[in-house]
Every structure is written in C-alpha cells, then in structure tokens.
DNA sequence: AGAAGGACCAGTGGTCCGTA
DNA sequence: AGAAGGACCAGTGGTCCGTA
C-alpha cells in the first residue's frame, strides 16, 4: 500500500524527461529518484533513449526563445514534429489538474497527485542550481531564489510543465510539507477522505503554517530561509499577510489579557483563525 | 592636522538635515556623529531647531510624490518656499562635485570631499534600517539591500543629495574603504598629491579590490556579504567583471605554469592588470 | 465549477546621456 | 573636460483573468 511514490507526467502530447537532474532523496514519501522514468503516458516520448545522443541533452525549445543564452546555443537543430504515435501535438496540452492524494498515492485518470506537485519544487531547485553554476562560471550575478530566469531555463530545458503561476500558487503547500511532513501528510489524508478539491486543501495549508510561525516568533522569512528546500522560494504574500494579521491579533489579545485580566479574548482570537 | 572629518553639505539652495539617524561610529576617519550639524552653508537651514515641532520630523517632500506611503502621510502641510535669506530656491542645485581629499580633510570651495562621500553610504544604511523597521512593523517584505524603495524614502526624508546613480557609481570606492581602510587612505593621499581628479581615483580603487578578491578565492559576493556595511550594497557589475576576468587569466596562467613550467606568463598577467 | 498558465503590469536594477 | 543625476529601459516579481 506504499509503493514508490509515482504520478503520471501528465503532458498528454509529449512528455519530455527532465534532464540532467542531480537526484536527491528529498521530499515526498517513498524512495527518491524515480520521477524521471515514471509511468509516462505512452503517447510519445522524447527519443533520446540512447542516453548519449550528442549531448545527452537535446532539448526542445519554444520557438519564441527570445534571450537564448541559457541552455546550449545551437538554436538550429529543430528536432520537433515528426509524427510517430497518433496524436500529433504542437498545440501544447495543459497539465492535468491536481487532486488531493495521500502520500505515496498515484493519481488515477487524467489527474496529478500531490507528490508529483512537490516533486516539481525539487526540479525547480535542481534547475536553480544549474543556473547558479552557470552564473558562477561566467562571473555573473548568481540568483539565490527561483527567479524568472530559472523558469525560463526550465522551459528551455524542456520542462514545459513548470511555470511560474503554478509554482507560486502552491508554494505554501510545499512549505508545510518541508516544515512539518507529519502534519502535511495528515492534512492530505483528511482532505482526501472528505473528498475535498485541491483548492480547499490548498487553503487549509495556511493554518498550520501560521501556527508554526506563531511558535517561532512570527518570522516567516527566517523560517523559510532556515530550510534549504524552502529558502529558494519567495514567501507568498498571502502567508505573510496572514502571519502579520494573526500576530497583531495575538498582540492585542495578550495585551488585553494583561490589562483586563480576561483570557477570553485571547482564546477567541487563537481559536477563530 | 586631523580634526573632525567634515565637509560641506553642499546643497547650495537648501540643506536639509538628515533626520532621525541613529548615529554609529562607523567609517571615515575622525569621531563619528558629526555630519548632521556640519558646516552647512549658511544660506538657509531647515527650521526645526526647536527639535520637537510636531513630529520632530517635518520633512520636505518632492511635489511629485507618487507612491507616498513612506514617511508620514500628511501630504498637505506644504511648508516650503518662504523667503528668508537671499537665494530663494525651488530650482534644486546640484551637489558640488567631489575632489580627492585625504582622510579627515575638508574640501575647500564648492567641492565635497571623500569622507563626505563615504558618509552618504552610512546615511543610506540608516535609511535602509528605517525602511526595514517599517516593513517589519507592517508585515511587508523586508529589503536587505539599498533598493529603489530606500532611495525614494531618503528623498522624501529630505536627503535630496542622495540618489541612485551617484551611490552606485562610487560603491566600490566605499567597498575599499570598508575592507582595507589603510590601503584606501594611502590611495587617497597618493591621488591627492598627484592632483588627480575624482574619476582617476575612482578607477584606481578597482585594482586593490581585485587583489583582495584574489586572496579570498575570488568570491566578491561573499566578501561584500561578510561586511555589515557592504552587505547592503549590490556588487558593482564592473567589479564583478574585473574579478572574473582576472580569475580566468590567473587560471590560464597557472595552468600554463603547470604545463610548461614557465612562470613568466603568470607574472605577466598579475603585473599588467 | 474548478483549475492551469499566458500574459500583463507596476515598480526594479542598472546606467546612459542630456545637463550644468 | 569632468562630473552630477533625471530619466529611460529591459527584464522582475506578482498574479489576474481569458481559457479549456
């Protein structure tokens, strides 16, 4: 009941393998390092099985490639669009929507699970590291966070399923996973059982995070920075705001306690968040 | 021969006092904490001598004030433009140009000295700290560097003599001052004696910095970050490039040494920078 | 209805170049 | 000529909203 934590790389049309990832056994449930060769839908695969074809990294690139100094510069070798299976696809399909899965569970049907979501954050970290190494080699300034540059790099490297709005949208869910995996797992199980949608689960992830922040002096930035997987992500605005609001409420409450002697208000604030 | 290190706050038209600075005895030569009440040209002073007038911080503001949430929000009290001395001035005068002064020396005539220049970096640090405190209070994201926001804040606080192009222009000079004051002082004396202009002195500041970087593994970013006064400034592009170029040259040279056994090439590179 | 992501936008880092 | 700084510009962080 707890196999390798897998999900479909749901790119329907084509599913490139994330390339040149230094695997690390971080994150979701089971044994690390298996996402690349995952149950990819059999439609079509990027054909570098040979593993050494030229650069081992023949990558797809968006034709728009504006500022293409990132990957390798041979802008010419367009090895795109040979029919092979059925469904030809230049028209990029969207990723399958996420559903709330419990740890280790593979999403059925045209869905993606939460382990896969969290895996994407690991991929971004790997891409960031590559961008950092490039920058260091070239003596350029070196990003410490997942910036636009990193997203651009990821896209050029073929990871078209990574994009900024998505990653930013779920950062705090990943944060909970990094900071308190127990709680994160419990929440997933609970919301799966209740058959809640992803949006509801996502919303619910804020509360335990605020509680963690409360315990650690309300400094979300410090909390993020202290965790190597999290430190590369910007603290989401909404999480920051929630922590601020709750801290203020707590301050008011505790001062009214110390003035009036009544603990009721404080209790109210803490309970009703 | 080594009095308090002073310079004219050279705003000809009006010279506001930098306000609410937590003085710290950092930086240039003599006793800290004297810049505010400095030999300000007697033309006109901002009249809050009373020290407690309302907020103790009635500040001039550029009329353009676009996004005015920074200082205090009473956008209305325009206490500008009453004639008093002679030279009325809405037309902002430029700052007097810098000349190369030795440590502790006050610039004569319509000039500013290098101690004053370095003092401006301290002021920026103070403004940054204020902006940071504001951000923390409000639960907003907190800048770690002197950003546009800080320059805007400084301007609104009346420090019209602080501006981004100027501060960025001389960052590496300040860096040398912070990292090796001995060398910095010696360079100033040398260039003063040679009657070089500021531009020449500024150029000359790069070389000893690159030498410092060489000694410390070429990581300029780490060097900046390790110094509390420097860590708030972006590493100047040109300094980064010089370090990179020199590191590459050194690498080539040393490898050619280890291959050919000749130390001449290495000697050449190091000497000719 | 719920969700993925292209694309927009205000404000950034960086510095050029018209100005004094 | 040498220098100060207004103002511009490419690319950023942030996220909305037209799309599927």
From TrEMBL, chains A, B:
Keywords: Activator, Developmental protein, DNA-binding, Nucleus, Transcription, Transcription regulation. It comes from the Eukaryota. Signal peptide: none annotated. One of its GO terms (molecular function) is DNA binding. GO terms for cellular component: nucleus. GO terms for biological process: regulation of DNA-templated transcription. Residues 71-85 have a biased composition (Acidic residues). This is Floricaula/leafy-like transcription factor. The lineage of its organism: Eukaryota, Viridiplantae, Streptophyta, Embryophyta, Tracheophyta. The chain holds residues 144 to 416 of 416 of the full protein.
